[in-house]
Amino acid sequence: IPLRSQEKIYGLGLQFMSFEQRGKKKMVRVNADPKMDTGDSHAPVPFYVTTDGIGILIDTARYATFYFGDARAKPEQAAASVTDSNPDPNYTHNIQDADRGLVTVEVPHARGIDVYVFAGPTMLDAVRRYNVFSGGGHVPPEWGLGFWYRPESRATQESALALASEFRQRKIPCDVIGLEAGWQTHAYSCTFVWETKRFSDPAAFVRDMQNLQYKVNLWEHAFTHPASPLFPKLKADSGDYGVWGGLVPDFASKDARVAFGEYHGKTLLDMGISGFKLDECDNSDFTGGWSFPELSRFPSGVDGEQMHSVFGLRYQKALWDQFQKRHQPTYCLVRSSGALAAPYPFVLYSDLYVHRDFIRALVNSGFSGLLWCPEVRDAVSSDDLIRRLQSVVFSPLAMINGWYIKSPPWRQLNRRLNNAGQQMEGWEGIEDRCREIIGWRMSLVPYLTAAFQRYAEDGTPPFRALVLDAPSDASVARVDDQYMVGDRMMIAPLFAGEPSRQVVIPAGAGWHDFWTGAAVAGGSVAHVDASTRNIAVYVKAGSVVPWADVGQHAGSAESRKLTIRVYGDGSLPFEMRNGNSTLRLRWAGGQGTADGAGEYNISSWKQMG
Description:
By secondary structure, the chain is of the alpha+beta class. Helices cover 23% and strands 22% of the residues. The chain has helices at residues 123-134, 157-169, 202-211, 231-234, 254-269, 304-325, 355-365, 382-393, 415-419, 427-458, 466-469, and strands at 2-3, 9-13, 25-27, 44-50, 54-59, 65-68, 101-106, 114-119, 147-150, 176-179, 215-220, 275-278, 332-334, 346-348, 398-401, 463-464, 483-485, 489-492, 500-504, 511-513, 519-520, 525-529, 536-540, 544-548, 561-566, 574-578, 581-588, 591-595, 601-607. The chain has a seven-stranded parallel sheet. A six-stranded antiparallel sheet has the order 16-17-18-23-20-21. Strands 1-7-6-3 form a four-stranded antiparallel sheet, with no helix packed on it. Helix 5 crosses helix 6 and helix 8 runs parallel beside helix 10. It is globular. The two termini are 48 Å apart. The relative contact order is 0.11.
C-alpha cells in the first residue's frame, strides 16, 4: 500500500508503548501483557489511518504484521560509488518519513484478504467513516457515565451494602457497584452461580442496591467450570482445550453465543443485573498461560489463533444480544476487543498499571473505534491517587477498582494496613479531594452524553488524539499525553513524581483554561507546575459548556440543574438530545438562551473569560 512523503501513521488498536507508527514493524497479536513495542495488545485492530486522510482495514483474524515504510524492494541498478562513506553514528537505520515508501502487510495462512479503504478528505473523516461502517458509536446510559466503584473480591452481601450506604452517607457520588470474582461459587473457571455463603439472598441484594440508586455489575470470564449449569449446554460447542479446568465456548458459533447469553439473561439480567466485567478473554505470554493455545480447534472450524482475535468481540455480542432483546441499556467492561467494535457498549481495561501508558492507550484508542478506562487500581502516594483519579474522570468510564482492599483507597493506600483496618492520618482531607474530583465526573455527564451522541451519529470519537483534529499541525504529531474530549475540551493529565509538564496548545483558534477562564494563545506551549491543584483542562475559545450540579448519582434531581460556562464570546453553542427534544444552549451579547431544556433547569450562566 503506497505512502506519501511526510505521511504519518496511527492506529492498530489499543497500543500502550508507542504512538506514531511510521518506520515501525508491528504484529497485531492478542496479548494481554505487551512488554515491548511489537504491536501486541489485548485489543489489536488491523486498521490504521494516516495524516493524508486514508484509513486502511485489513479484514483478517490472523496475526497480521505491518511494515510501516521499512520493507522495500531490492535495488535494481548498480551504483558508481557510495554517496556517504562515513554515515553519522547517530543514524537510526529508520528511514521514517523522509521519502516515499510502502506499507507492507503480511498475513500468513490466508489465501486472500479483503482490504477496505476509508478516504478522508481529512484524517478525522477517515476515522469517522470507519466507525460508521462499524455501525456507529454507542451512547451509554446516564448511569454508565457516572462514577463506578468495585469493592474487594471477597465482599459479602452485608459488606457491599455497607460500603454503598457509606458512600451515600458521606456524599461520595456513585452509580455502579461492581462485584469481583468472589460473588460466584467458583471462579477461575466460572460457575456463574451465586455463592450463597456470601450472598444469602442475591435477589434481595440487587433490590437493596437499586433502592439506594445503584446499578450492579458482575465480574466473570467465559471459561466454564464443570459444575456450572452451563457446562452441559456448552460441552459440544467448545474448543478441544480447556482453561483452568473449564470449557472454552466456541463464540464463533451462534449456538454457543445463544446458550451462554440466554443463561445470563434468565438468571442474572432478569434479576436486575445491569452489566458485566468480562475478564481474561484475551491471551498472555507472561502470566502462567491462562488461555488456550493457537493450535486449538473449535466446532465452528476456526483455530486458536483466529479465536483469540474474535473471542472478546463475540463474547461481548453473546451478552449484548440479551440486553438488546430486553430493550435494556447497559455499559460494561471487557478485557479484549478488536475490529469494528464501535457499536458495542463495552469499555476496555487492563492489568497493566503505568499511568503514562494508560494515557497513551486512551489517546490511541480513538483511532480504532475503541473505548478505554484508565481505572484507578493502585497508587503509591496520595498525590498519585489524586492524579490518577483526575485522569479517569475525564475518560470513557470513571472507576476505582478496590478489588484487593477492604476500605476505599482514600482511607488507606497501603494494602496490608488497609486490610488490617488501619486508616491513614488525615485521611478525611484526602477523601474530601476525591469527593470533589468524583463530583467533576457527575458535572460532566451532559457534556459527555453529547459527545457520545455525536459518536453514534457520525462516528466522531468522543476521546481522541489531538492529531485527528489537526493533522497538519506538526506540533501535535507526536503528542501522546494530551487528548480531546468531545468537540471543545482538551485534557493534559499530570503525573505524580514529575516536577512539571509542558502542554502543547494547538494552533488556530484561541483557548481558555477551563478552571479559571484565562485566555491561552493557540500555537503556544503552556508550562504546568506539579503544584497545580487541578488536572490541566483547556476549552476552545467561544465554547458554551454545561456543568451539572453534583448529585449522589447521575439520575438525581441535582444533576438536572445546569450552570452554563461561557468561554470568550460564546460563539460555539452546545447541543444535546434530551429525550424526544434537543437541549440547545446559546450565548449572545451577555445573554444566554436555552431551547428544549426539558427536565433541565438552567440555574445560571457564568462567563469564564
